[in-house]
Amino acid sequence: MSLLQTALQRFNDLLAQAQQCGLDYPNAMSVATVNAQGQPSVRTLLLKGVENQALVFYTNKHSRKSDDLAQNQQVALLFYWQCLHQQVLIEGRVTDVSEAEADAYWQTRPLPSRIGAWASQQSQTLAHRADLEQRYADYAAQFADGLVPRPPHWSGYQVMPHRIEFWTEGEFRLHHRECYELNHGVWTLRLLNP
Ligand SMILES: Cc1cc2nc3c(=O)[nH]c(=O)nc-3n(C[C@H](O)[C@H](O)[C@H](O)COP(=O)(O)O)c2cc1C
């Protein structure tokens, strides 16, 4: 098994353990992007899964994060599971998921989420809350047959990692940090001071 495979296996094992903690969203992660001016921003997203050695999430491609990602494909993902005393930091580069993958995932989303994706102009100014509710009602009426196509601006990204750090809480603040890193095509594993 390569070091990347080992790291992703460890990540999947932790996620599975986190799913036993009784959390509402064990797959919640902070996703940091950087815009063209170098300004970082961060928000919580749900990890959809790990596929083809990449971490996949879905969003609105007209959003602020997508504007950032159009300019700068570098991202950082951060998971903190208090119940496990573990943090995982993943840095990498995004590419788009395929249309077929996005279509397949779209079909698994509950109907209200699919209608909501049409109604919300994510990250754009909303003059009145009632405008959003009206848009939702209008799309719910338009798609009353339950056949809701995927909006062209709703899709996913896959993050190809080049750095994965596992942080485990230790006694006396002597935490344990293990850093898997890709340099010049070679993955290495080293410890870091806490
Ligand atoms: C627990 C949780 C899960 C979320 N999951 C997603 C998600 O999977 N996709 C998404 O686009 N926004 C999700 N959001 C909303 C984002 O945090 C954010 O508000 C939205 O994507 C707009 O971000 P942006 O303006 O930086 O692009 C989630 C928020 C929370 C608190």
Q: Care to describe what's here?
A:
This protein is an alpha+beta fold and 194 residues long. It has one domain (3-102, 154-192): Pnp Oxidase, Chain A, CATH 2.30.110.10. Helices cover 29% and strands 38% of the residues. The protein has helices spanning 3-18, 64-71, 99-108, 111-119, 129-142, and strands at 28-34, 40-46, 49-51, 54-60, 74-81, 86-96, 154-168, 176-183, 186-192. Strands 1, 2, 3, 4, 5, 6, 7, 8 and 9 form a nine-stranded antiparallel β-sheet that branches. Helix 4 crosses helix 5. The longest helix has 16 residues, at 3-18. The radius of gyration is 19 Å and the shape is elongated. The structure holds flavin mononucleotide (FMN).
Task: Tag the structure with descriptive keywords.
194 residues; Pnp Oxidase, Chain A; 5 helices; 9 strands; 29% helix; binds flavin mononucleotide
| DSSP strand content | 35-45%
Bound molecules: flavin mononucleotide
Largest sheet: 9 strands, antiparallel
In CATH, the topology is named Pnp Oxidase, Chain A
Alpha carbon gyration radius = 19 Å
- The level of helicity is 25-40%
Show the helix and strand layout.
Elements: H1 3-18, E1 28-34, E2 40-46, E3 49-51, E4 54-60, H2 64-71, E5 74-81, E6 86-96, H3 99-108, H4 111-119, H5 129-142, E7 154-168, E8 176-183, E9 186-192
Antiparallel strand pairs: 1-2, 1-5, 3-4, 4-7, 5-6, 6-7, 7-8, 8-9
Helix pairs in contact: 4-5
Flavin mononucleotide binds at residues 25, 28, 41, 43-46, 57-60, 63-65, 122-123.
Short description:
The chain is α+β, with helices and mostly antiparallel strands. It has five helices and nine strands; from the N terminus they run αββββαββαααβββ. It has one domain (3-102, 154-192): Pnp Oxidase, Chain A (Roll).
